[in-house]
Amino acid sequence: MLTGRSVTAPGNFHKVATTAAHEMGLRYMSDMSVVDSVANDLSTERQTPRLEVVGIDKEYPAATGPIQILRGLSLRADRGEFVSIVGPSGCGKSTLFNIITGLVPPTAGSVLVNGEDVTGSTSRHIGYVLQKDLLFPWRTVLENVVLGLEVRGVRKKDARTRARSLFATYKLEGYEDKYPSDLSGGMKQRAALMRTMVTDPDIILMDEAYKALDYPLKIALESELLETARTTGKTVVAVTHDIEEAVTMSDRVYVLKARPGEVVSEFPIDLGTTSTDINERRLAPRFNEFYEKIWRGIGQKPGAA
Questions:
Q1: Where exactly are the structural domains of the chain?
Q2: Own/partner long-range contacts of 19-28 (Cβ < 8 Å, ≥24 apart)
């Protein structure tokens, strides 16, 4: 997992490590494409998952023998679906996202996007929002937001026009020409969210992306994202430690056990409401029922009902 922890070492190691992290961010941003047009036949498209992970194993070598991070992990996410992944710290959730984006190869298993095997490579359909913002400190906020569009060859004027339309939504109006050093932690994360959203990816991976935001803005952006998924057919897969957030946002929740991470249970979520307003969804009659099921599920062994 990429974190916000500072690296302290002699010489220029800190600069090299920071540059490497930025380059990693640039790698997956450069491969993100504009969202496909919404298919006319939704039922046909749902036969093939937008994203499918099949039998993923991940091991890392160690002096005492391989350390297994993931074991036989499988999941799917359909068009227009919001899927959450919950589990204890260290169960491999972020490793799974790195495998899906092609940043880390699996030891075994495969990743499919729209039925195409993309294992070990970056997919042009995926956008990835990390816990760490990875903004380039020498670029303005606007220049950071348009970076993915520039890499894909969008004209500078067009890229900036598209980006500027998001600044009001993400409460960053007036900061277009500021630098990351002028922003708070939450503001930086909002800029990072904009950088992903402006490219219109089909699949949005979110690794606790709202964690640094204040509660009112978090609720507003969650509602906006859920509405976007419903109306445009985008697929969202989110890693979270917050069961309340998972139940409120999701059509489906996967629970992973502690390392090696594997699926303990899968919960289709039906709160009995079609509202995309987060506050309304948290007041839905079945909210507590699903919250309790998932809470209990985290303590189950693999295969338990």
A1: 77-125+202-297, 135-200
A2: 21/132, 21/134, 22/134, 22/136, 24/103, 24/134, 25/130, 25/134, 26/147, 26/151, 27/103, 27/122, 28/101, 28/102, 28/103, 28/122, 28/126, 28/127, 28/128
- What architecture is the 77-125+202-297 domain classified under in CATH? 3-Layer(aba) Sandwich (3.40)
Instruction: Please answer whether residues 211 and 4 qualify as being in contact, where contact means their C-beta atoms are separated by less than 8 angstroms.
Output: no
pLDDT band, very low/low/confident/very high, at 32 (cuts 50, 70, 90): very low
Closest by CA to 195, choosing from 121, 136, 245, is 136
pLDDT, tens only, 93-152: 889 999 999 989 999 999 999 999 999 887 778 988 887 888 999 999 999 999 988 888
pLDDT tier at 16, thresholds 50, 70, 90: very low
Q: Strand, coil or helix: what is 82?
A: strand
What is the Cα 154 distance to its own chain's centre? 24
Share of the chain above pLDDT 70, in %: 83
What tokens were used for 13?
């190691």
User: In which element (H, E) is residue 74 found?
Assistant: strand 67-77
Residues 22, 156, 170, 80, Cα dihedral to 10°: -80
What's the distance, CA 184 to chain centroid? Answer: 21
Tokens for 20, please give them.
């490497």
Q: Residue 239 in contact with residue 209, Cβ under 8 Å?
A: no
Q: Is 101 helix (H, G, I), strand (E, B) or coil?
A: coil
The pLDDT assigned to 59 comes to 94
pLDDT of 262 over the 80 cut: yes
Nearest 10 degrees: Cα torsion 135, 192, 101, 231: -160
What is the radius of gyration, based on Cα positions, of the chain? 19
Q: Which of the 8 DSSP states describes residue 84? A: E
Q: Are 128 and 196 in contact (CB under 8 A)?
A: yes
